[in-house]
Specification:
By secondary structure, the protein is an alpha+beta fold. It is built from seven helices and 14 strands. An eight-stranded antiparallel beta sheet has the order 1-2-6-7-10-11-12-13. A three-stranded antiparallel beta sheet has the order 3-5-4. Strands 8-9-14 form a three-stranded antiparallel beta sheet, with no helix packed on it.
């Protein structure tokens, strides 16, 4: 929870609930900037709206120019695509749509799992320039919300705020002198917690297959090598310097062993298997309930 006495600014954006907590009440100007940044990001990357920049690529091949922050997003996805052997890919969107997680939220599968094509065959992404060599559904959801949290944190810093907590429905960025204690949601019961962690000048992200689940065995965390929903892990938490990286690594933990990711990224983690076993890194400063 935020520090007692802090002011909270809440709003909806990119299909999720946002709460930004600060010691002082945010003025109208910065509130508008925060909302506008979320809307701009949605209009750029959302596969759930027909007027987004990336939506045109699902209809025909072509080239689009992305904002400058796309460089960091591309680099992170490229690294994780290689580290996970293609299991984590920005081309997973068509597979999600095929299983029912489409722009209409129909939740009605139109076919069985289908692995996305190899990145190098259909996508050329160089900095802010992205070229689709054939129609494709770009989905950067595994890291996008985390990057947007970082962007809002940057706006707050630019506006003179050094103490804040940005919370995008569990993807959090903390800054300041006052650490906050965060409850870790039980993967099978959102009204309970399996433990707590102290967040201080870092990011915390979670991923769970119960958040977007429909039908038997169907949820939003897919293996990009098979197109299948991953069943071996049910929930992960990661802590890193940036929310974008923590967000992406929380998803990658469903796909590869933590030791593989630790060779390439500086982060701490907690993972709960489908059998209920919890494993965590030595640097994860949390407390699990017994």
């Amino acid at each position: 929870m935020p520090h007692p006495g802090w002011s909270a600014f809440s709003f909806e954006g990119i299909g999720t609930h946002w709460e930004i907590s600060t010691p002082q009440v945010l003025g109208a100007d910065i509130r508008e900037q925060l909302r506008a940044e979320v809307d701009k990001y949605d209009k750029t990357y959302s596969r759930f709206r027909a007027d987004s920049l990336v939506a045109s690529l699902s209809q025909r091949p072509g080239t689009i120019t992305l904002p400058e922050h796309a460089v960091g997003l591309r680099n992170l996805y490229s690294r994780l695509y290689w580290v996970t052997g293609g299991a984590m890919t920005p081309l997973i969107g068509a597979s999600l749509e095929r299983l029912g997680y489409d722009s209409e939220y129909s939740l009605r599968p139109t076919g069985g799992p289908l692995p996305p094509p190899p990145w190098e065959d259909v996508l050329a992404w160089d900095g802010t320039s992205l070229t689709a060599k054939e129609p494709l559904v770009l989905d950067i959801g595994a890291a996008g919300k985390g990057q947007l949290v970082d962007l809002l944190g940057g706006l707050l810093v630019s506006a003179g705020f050094s103490d804040f907590l940005v919370d995008a429905s569990g993807d959090m960025l903390h800054s300041g002198r006052h650490p906050v204690t965060i409850a870790l949601e039980h993967p099978y019961n959102p009204k309970q917690a399996i433990g707590t962690v102290v967040l201080h000048n870092s990011a915390l992200c979670a991923s769970a297959n119960n958040r977007r689940a429909w039908g038997v065995g169907l949820h939003h965390v897919l293996d990009g090598t098979t197109g299948q929903p991953i069943q071996t892990t049910v929930a992960t938490w990661t802590m890193a310097a940036s929310t974008m990286e923590a967000d992406a690594l929380a998803t990658a933990l469903f796909m590869v062993e933590p030791t593989v990711l630790e060779e390439h990224f500086a982060f701490s983690w907690l993972r709960v298997s489908s059998g209920g076993a919890a494993t965590f890194s030595s640097a994860f400063e949390g407390r699990l309930f017994t």
